[in-house]
Each structure stands twice: as structure tokens, then as C-alpha cells.
Amino acid sequence: MTPQAYPEKYFSNIFTKGKRGNILVENIIFIILNLIFLVILILFLLKQGSGAIVLEQSYAKQISLLIDSSKPLMTLKLNMEEGKKLAEKNKVDFNEVVRIEDNIVVVKLSGKGGYEYSFFNDVDVTAYPDKEFYVFIINEKN
Amino acid sequence: MNKYGTDKIISVYWFGILIIVAGGIFAMVYTFYHHPYDVRELEANIMINKIADCLSSEGKINLNILDDTEKFLLNNDNFLEICNVNFDVEKKWEDEPQYYVEINFYKPGDTDNPIFEISNGNKNLISSCIIQNEEYEKLARCVEKRFYSLTENNNQYLIKILSIIRKSEKNVK
Predict the structure, then answer these.
(1) Does one domain contain both A1 and A28?
(2) Do B11 and A30 touch (CB under 8 A)?
(3) What is the DSSP string of B29-61?
(4) Is this complex's ipTM strictly greater than 0.95?
(5) Domain span holding position A11
(6) pLDDT of residue B18
(7) CA distance, residue B68 to nearest chain A CA (Å)
(8) pLDDT at A19
(9) Are residues A11 and A74 in the same domain?
(10) Is B9 in CB contact (< 8 Å) with chain A?
(11) How far apart are alpha carbons B108 and B105 in whole angstroms?
(12) Domains of chain B, residue spans
């Protein structure tokens, strides 16, 4: 079959094939773009939920409230597995994640300054890491 | 030809919708995660529990608070030290403490006139207790609790503790 013999039929076939091909490619691009959109959205949500700023604040406030409700001679253990992972990712030594300076708790999970929150309980607190936990020993102030 | 054109228009609308949805989710997440956790009410409750433990144990007023002759040993100056509480915790707020505590002792028959009262902290925070709703969350948080306790001679007292925490900068945006 040559174009000269059956011009209408010939071009019609080419057009149909091309049209179908366009629709398929368009659909694939459409699906890929949708998937990219969903992946970006999920990554954004995950990043926000486990971000250093949120975790630092959460840990600092938790530790302050724990110390406030404690009494001398108590030992408190706080699971900071998520914080440890983030600290390692941000190349922060886990030994330096929590600092107690007088009556202020400072939590640092990234290279930036960290987050601090104060407690009113007049006690002496010693903090040290133990695997994925942080241990707080409460003693009377001298 | 029309169908092809319509598909294109639908996909443009579809991406428009996706952008609106993404914008909405971004706004919600941003609002949620950039809003600090407000722990002031918890903190005020913990403070009340701590002071209540300091004043009374097992339903009896401690002897370092009220002696055998029913004389109050507590005063505005020594109360924080006796109860192991420190309000002077942040140098930034040295001139304007972020805490206030008031303790009133009443005889059970007369709960309007306290027979003994002590307080410590920033008195200016008391005015915040008049309005305590979400619209005015930047004001200090107030919590008041009361309980009964006996003396060594089995005389009953009603003790009211008011605890106020400000710390608005760290707890409210």
C-alpha cells in the first residue's frame, strides 16, 4: 500500500497510531508527576515531624518537667532513640546532646544553638547517656 | 480532537488542585510544627503538687511549717528554700520572674478570710488570672488547687495554692 494509491487511509492510520501513542505518553507523564508530588509531600511531612527543632523542644520540655516532678535520690531514664539517630545524622556527639546548666536544660541535636528550657525544682542534676537512653540523677543541692 | 483538548484541560485543572492541596497541607504542617508545645499548665500543676508535698504529708501539716503550738514557721523569705523551689532560674528574666505562688490557710468555717498567707514571685502576673482562655494565651497560665490538712492537735485547715507560670515566649507563638 502506497500513499499515492490510498492517501486517505494511509494518513488516517498514521494519525491514529500517533494519537494513541501521545495519549499513552501523556498518561505516563501524568502518573509520574503525581507520584513525584506524593513523594515530595510525604518526605516533607516526615522531615517536619522528625526535625531537629521539634525534637529539641520536645526533649527539653520533657526533661524539665521530669526534673520538676522529681525528688532527691531519684534516677530518671529517658528514651532518646530518635534523638540519637538525628544527632548521629547531624554529626553531633550523643554525649553532648543534653546539658544541664544550673536550672536550665539545653538540648542540641544539630550544629545550631539548640533549645533551652528552665526548671524550678532546686536540685542538683547529673545527666549522662546510656545506649539510646539518657539518665538523670537527682541529688539535693549542696 | 475535542476529547484530546478536554484531557489537556482536565490535567491542568488536576495540577491546579494538587497545588492547592499541597499548599493547604504545607500551611497546616507549618502552623502545627512551628507552634511551640504549651506546657505551662502542666508546670503549674507540678509546682502545686511539689508545694503541697512540702506543706503536708499523709494528711498532716508538716512540723517545719506549723509547730506544736500552731505557730506558722513559714514566711515569704524562707518558703522557697524550705520547699526547694528556685524562681531565679534565668538571667534573662532576673528583673521579671516568670513564676508566682500564693498559699492561703483558712479555717474550715471561714473560707473568705485567710488566717495566714504567703506568696513569692512576680505579683504582676496575678492580673493574668482574670482572663484564662485561648484568645489570650500569651498571658500567664494560672492554676489553683485546694486541700484539707490536719495539725498535730487535729485542727483542720483548708489550704489554697495558686500557681502562675508566664514563660509565654517559650510556650506561645
Answers:
(1) yes
(2) yes
(3) HHHHHTS----HHHHHHHHHHHHHHHHEETTEE
(4) no
(5) 1-49
(6) 81
(7) 27
(8) 52
(9) no
(10) no
(11) 9
(12) 1-34, 38-171
